[in-house]
Structures are given as C-alpha cells and as structure tokens.
Structure prediction request, 174 residues.
Amino acid sequence: MNYIATIGNFDGIHIGHQMLIQNVLMQAEEKKLRSLLYTFNVHTKGSRELILNPKDKVLFLQQMGLEKVKLLNFESIRKMTPREFVFHLSEQKIKELIVGEDFRFGVHASGNAEILKELCAQKDITVMIFPSVYIGNEKISSTYLREELKLGKLEKVNPFLYQNFFITSKIVGG
Prediction:
C-alpha cells in the first residue's frame, strides 16, 4: 500500500501541526492512501527545551488517527544530502508528501520545501507545501510557544497545543 506522509519535529503538536495532520488524514481518505508521519527522537535544531518528550509526542500523534507514526533516529539521517534523503523517502512507498513551508532537510539543513518539491518530482512523489498559521501578526511555531512558556505564559500557550502543557519527570527520593 502507498502512503501520504508528513515529516517534522512536531514539538508540542500545536495548531499549525494539527491542521497539517488533518490535511494528511483528509487527503489519505480521499486518495485511498495510508497516512504516515515521521518525527524525530531529538529536536533537529538541537533544542533541549522541548514542549513534549518523544514518548508523549508519539502517543498523542497516534491518538490523532494516523495509521503509522515513525520515530526516526535523527543521527541516522542528519548527514544525508537532500538527494539521498529523497531517495530514502522514495523507498518507503510514499506517493505524496505534505510539509510546512519552513521545512528544512539534508545535511546542515541545506534543503528547503521548494528543493524537496523539485527532487521528489524526479521520484514521482507529489509534494504539497502547507502554509504557516498566524494568529494576528504572530506566526504560531514551536519556537514561539517555547519562548512564551519560558516567560510562564501558560494561558497564552495552552490554546494552541494538542494537550495543555505538562511536565513528565521521574520522582526520586531525597
């Protein structure tokens, strides 16, 4: 069976992510494709301050109705050139790919959404570039939401997240 897929960090699964994922699910149903989401075990930009840990992120993504959620080891793909990355995707039976307009990939983030579209066309993979979501003049992004969380603005951040912000931690005796 062939897939319609998306790929990204999806930290916090904010409203922009949710809209993109809903689009994947709608397109999958309409085109009789299976839905697939790739995300990473670490943040691709090296951020250690994540809104969601990888385990919770995968759990929530699965709850959204995706047929397959794959947690990729970022170290295994971070040194791929954009062309190698697209070749890897083409081996996964992906026929369509939906990414955000700020999507970057390949070694040193050398590829962008337009390059992805060009390279995927050579492998008969259709790429749709999903626009960013703005509330007023503010682009809703994981980076923006992390900054607001640092300032303690939960009431501002929570409406944009899949699940209200929470912290998971191990309790140790002291």
